[in-house]
Amino acid sequence: MSDFPVFDLSRFERAGRGERAALGAEVDDICRSTGFLAISGHGVPQTVIDGAWTRARAFFDLPAEEKQKARAPYAGYPYGYLGPESEALAKSKGQDTPPDLKESFNGGPLGVPAGLDDPQALAFCYAPTIWPDAPDGFRPAWEAYYRAMEDLAARIMRVFAVALKLDEDFFVSTIDRPISALRALNYPEQAVPPKPGQLRAGAHTDYGSLTILLPEPGSGGLEILTPEGAWRAVPPVQGAFVINIGDLMALWSNDRWVSTLHRVVNPAPRSDGTTRRQSFAFFHQPNWHQEIACLPSCLTEGETPRYEPVLSGPYLMGKFQSTVKAA
């Protein structure tokens, strides 16, 4: 879709103060309308992307019993392998649907911040990732991609600060110990028809500040709900990541920015005859103890915040646990 917004991050980072303000205004307009845009000029090495992508593909190609060796140890554990029909994302929005037609591998922060002793944080966001034994090189490739996404998310948050007419460094202290998670998703071939109402990923919003999505080239299925109430396809953009706003950024901005409802539908076969689809999603999340409250720059005179403040970590934990299929 030629009208899907694409923002060149390298242009922003090369720009002077005045041009950065103008580019920030462009992002503000996009985030007010759809909450989805593509980021080009991101600087993430293709070798890092390919290394993680090919090893994730090789992992999903393993026999089910091999993948299950890296499974999450109990329902509600955030990391490791989640097999097909293990969660229903639409339940985070109060919709009772059949479980989603996907499998995933999930990993959290690569280390625990010094001095952190909150038991909930240690048991949830900083729980150990259950690493698979195969394929060779999986963990270092995964960690290289995670670090690249953590850096990219921090750079995008600088753009967001300018877009919201804040100091460019405003968010730095709120994301210096982020509780972000990386998810590799595989939507297998559909050998049998889905159940009524069953999708690859049910309609949901993401929970944090922003999500960095890498969809499979040439794939379809990701859709967003437009302000007019229609579902619209989101295309993969060559050489770019797809970015969407999460719930906490909508709360920070007092709904000035949209945490857009999105889903992954059951698509028709691609040109190669397959219906399989893979993607990476990096869910950027502010520090566990960070209070998310309405930003003063997002309040007009006489306006009041629409939401009570929340803490980043407990909000994430509650949303995640609502989606997991009980054992």
What would a concise description of this structure say?
The chain has helices at 9-14, 17-33, 46-60, 64-67, 119-123, 138-163, 247-252, 312-323, and strands at 6-8, 36-40, 80-82, 103-107, 181-187, 201-204, 210-215, 222-225, 231-233, 241-245, 262-264, 277-284, 291-292, 310-311. By secondary structure, it is an alpha+beta fold. It has a single domain (6-323), classed as B-lactam Antibiotic, Isopenicillin N Synthase, Chain (Jelly Rolls).
Task: Explain this structure.
With 327 residues, the protein is of the alpha+beta class. The chain has a single domain (6-323), classed as Sandwich (Jelly Rolls). It is 28% helix and 18% strand. It contains 8 helices and 14 strands. It has helices spanning 9-14, 17-33, 46-60, 64-67, 119-123, 138-163, 247-252, 312-323, and strands at 6-8, 36-40, 80-82, 103-107, 181-187, 201-204, 210-215, 222-225, 231-233, 241-245, 262-264, 277-284, 291-292, 310-311. The strands form 3 sheets. An 8-stranded mixed β-sheet has the order 1-2-10-7-12-5-4-3. Strands 6-11-8-9 form a 4-stranded antiparallel β-sheet, with no helix packed on it. A two-stranded antiparallel sheet has the order 13-14. A hairpin with a 5-residue loop joins strand 8 (222-225) and strand 9. Helix 2 packs across helix 6 (138-163) and helix 3 packs across helix 6. It is globular and about 60 Å long. The mean pLDDT is 90.
